[in-house]
Amino acid sequence: MENRHKQAQVATIIGMAVNILLAVLKLIGGMLGNSRALIADAVHSASDVLSSLAVLIGIRASRKPPDEEHPYGHGKSENVATLIIAILLIVVGFEIIYNSVRSLVSGSVGSETTLIALYIIIFSVVVKEALFQYKYRLGSRIKSPALIADAWHHRSDAISSLVALAGIGLTIVGSSFNIPALAYLDPIASAVIAIIIMYMGYQLGKEAVSVSLEVVLNEEETEDMREAVLAVDKVRNIDNLSARSHGSYVIIDIKIAVDAKMTVEEGHHVAREVKQLLMRQFEEVQDVNVHVNPY
Description:
Distance between the termini: 36 Å
Helix content: 55-70%
Family: Belongs to the cation diffusion facilitator (CDF) transporter (TC 2.A.4) family.
Domain Cation efflux protein transmembrane: 13-210
Strand content: 5-15%
CATH class of the largest domain: Mainly Alpha
Structural class: mainly alpha
CATH architecture of the largest domain: Up-down Bundle
Largest sheet: 3 strands, mixed
Number of domains: 2
Domain Cation efflux protein cytoplasmic: 217-295
Protein name: Cation diffusion facilitator family transporter
Subcellular location: Membrane
């Protein structure tokens, strides 16, 4: 578990450093290259820095051991961080789309977008997709919802950069061939980016709220756990098994049936064996509450 947190923190810090670099590059490129779409993308990259900071805080908070107020630990801290990311995405998206629509209505669109904006956006797409692949695979392997959410934030940035690429490219074409109408594609691309950002925020927020309400794993997801418990000597049946998600880990409540003539001490030994087996065999299991019933 300790190694898991270290890996997540390293990945988050790397993401923050890259996002700061990209945000600065895009902002400068958007201003020099006269591109609203690239400036909007710079804001998106800047929001990535804040979201990564929220993830880092959430990961560190989730490491705290259980206490009287939080007997099941602080695993949901990561989901709180995910919810913060979601809200941030929606707010940022709304701000960008508002500015884009205002620009279109007023007709204040540029027509001299330069190639520097195009080069920067291509570089951004490559870097952001690489970050997505790195964080998503690591987050899936160590079962970190906040890291996976941050990975999708990188993917949304890569997608928005592709939209900006199309808008910037067509605007440059319009400028080269004297087609003024194509200049409107840059703020339109900015508005599309905003919609993508807001949709991603909605999806992440819905997932974070769902986990915070303690989603119970379905039978298919707990099938391996059931088989492992039934293989334990002297366990006659599983009367009930409930595996609850607490962010990056799972808490199991299980009722097992043993021989009715078994002593209390023998039943206790079987229960302890079941608990140790589940926690040893399934890395995501943080704690197991075992109740023993007569068969």
